[in-house]
Amino acid sequence: MKKATVLKRVCCLALFATTVHAAENPNILLVMADDMGWTDLGCFGSEIETPHLDALAKNGVTFTDFHVSVSCSPTRSMLLSGNDNHIAGLGTMGELLTEAHVGKPGYEGHLNNRVATLAEVFQQGGYHTYLSGKWHLGHEKGTLPFDRGFESSFSMLIGAASHWADMQGIQSMYHPAKYSKNGEFLERLPADFYSSKSYADHLMDSIRENRADGKPFFAYLAFTAPHDPLHVPEPWLSKYRGHYDDGYEALKIQRWESAKQRGLLSKDAMLAERNPHIKPWEELSEDEKAIEARGMEVYAGMIDAMDYHYGRVINFLKDIGEYENTIVIFLSDNGANAFYSNQYPGAGEEFQVMFDTSLENIGHPWSNYAYGPGFASSSAGPLDKFKLTVGEGGIRSPLLIAGPGIKSGLQSDAFAYVTDLMPTMLELAGVKYPATYKGRNVEPMHGRSMAPILNGTKTAVYDASEYVVGTFEGT
Predict the structure, then answer these.
(1) SS3 151
(2) Helix, strand and coil in the chain, % to nearest 5
(3) Whole-number Cα distances in Å, 138 to 117, 180, 407
């Protein structure tokens, strides 16, 4: 009996130790959308069905005044470094570097060695580190995700490409698109590749592979949806047919009113005026209206599909018993994109002849369509402007955070910035940021932890008088 009692006590102590370890070392699932507007989620006032992300909002904290950079790679560099993009090496997107930028510190066009990445710090802190999806922080050997701390990675390395297996870039300079897996370039993608599905699949495979060793994981699921080209399979391709026939001005008003009803805005919040670059809907021809509406239908389908595949990852974590010990963070890298496809540098008429962007083919393989400023403005809802501008529609992103120790059903109107996410994640995980990494000095993080808001002990990250964000130096 004594032996059985001792054994029982040992088992109880082991269980207690495991529980304490789990509480101190949560998994982190970081999820990012690409070029998604502030009101494109159901929980932010959208008519698009996003039940899994809406559930994340319900179970955690919704931030209504969270800000990012105006474009992809500057935001991603700050997210993964906790530092200003000019320090991390992406003073502007690599595609926008001018002769004045080239060779200057902070404009390397890839994550430089002045910073330690989120993956490197987590890896040093005893975590598995996984990336599946968009990188856009270097596309040459030595700058790939595998080189910056991700032990398992399947990544599109450039800014945007086809969501199908054809690897078609959206600009001649990045065509065909570059992909890598675990530090090696890929010559082809699986025949059944669709971005949101395949990135979710790889992430789940990575988590499953190492699950038995008991180490926590940091997993970065970087969707390329809903960035153009607008592509989505059925049933999402047909799901929103006819939903946007009233046009982008009517949708913007609808989103504005819905955001106010949900308490995301004050009741007296004004609607931003129509941007002068946007042609009034009633002045479009019937053919123009049909194409514009079709683009928004496919865009909505892409967000719906992204939510579905995100939901698959959440259900997988529940199935393997990891969900309750996982902190989930969701954001977009910037606001909605207002360009049409033929307005990109290196994407003029000679390049566009490769594609079939007829009304009937939008959304299918070998189409190359972006939905333009009208519906991009609608995606911002009440906010002004869109991606590549410092208007709120360009730099304000939805942010949702939920998990162990985090308040449920809380809305925070506190101002926060993308550099705040890395210190937040490290604090929640109990991982320290180093002063040196692999023998080199690294810059201290620029951001500030949001953990006190998440646990309900504070209501603000910054005082109203504090200067927080840096500047964007683009074209």
Answers:
(1) coil
(2) 40, 15, 50
(3) 13, 11, 37
Reply yes or no: is the peptide bond before residue 233 cis, omega within 30 of 0. Answer: no
- 67: annotated active-site residue: no
| Residue carrying structure tokens 């430089």 | 112
181: β partners:
154, 184
Residue 459 binned pLDDT confidence (cut-offs 50, 70, 90): very high
CA distances from 80 to 70, 155, 269 (A): 16, 15, 34
Q: What is the dihedral of CA 371, 169, 334, 98, to 10 degrees?
A: -110
Which residue of the set 43, 52, 72, 309 is catalytic? 72
The residues facing 169 across adjacent strands are: 161
In a domain, 242, yes or no: yes
Instruction: Answer whether residue 11 is part of any domain.
Output: no
**pLDDT tens profile 108-166:** 999 999 999 999 999 999 999 999 999 999 999 999 999 999 999 999 999 999 999 99
Active site (annotated) includes residue 52: no
Euclidean distance between CA atoms 430 and 21, whole angstroms: 11
Q: For 196, phi and psi rounded to 5 degrees?
A: -60, -40
Q: Identify the CATH number of the domain in which residue 93 sits.
A: 3.40.720.10
CA–CA separation, 330 vs 30, rounded Å? 6
Domain of 319 in residue numbering reads as 25-454
| Domain membership flag for residue 223 | yes
Furthest-apart CA pair in the chain: how many Å? 88
Give the CA count within 13 Å in the CB-facing half-sphere of 55. 8
Catalytic residue among 52, 128, 136, 139: 136
Residue 142 tokens read as: 């030595």
Record the pTM. 0.93
E strand or H helix at 198: helix 195-210
Closest alpha carbon to 118 in 105, 129, 134: 129
Structure tokens belonging to residue 220: 């970065």
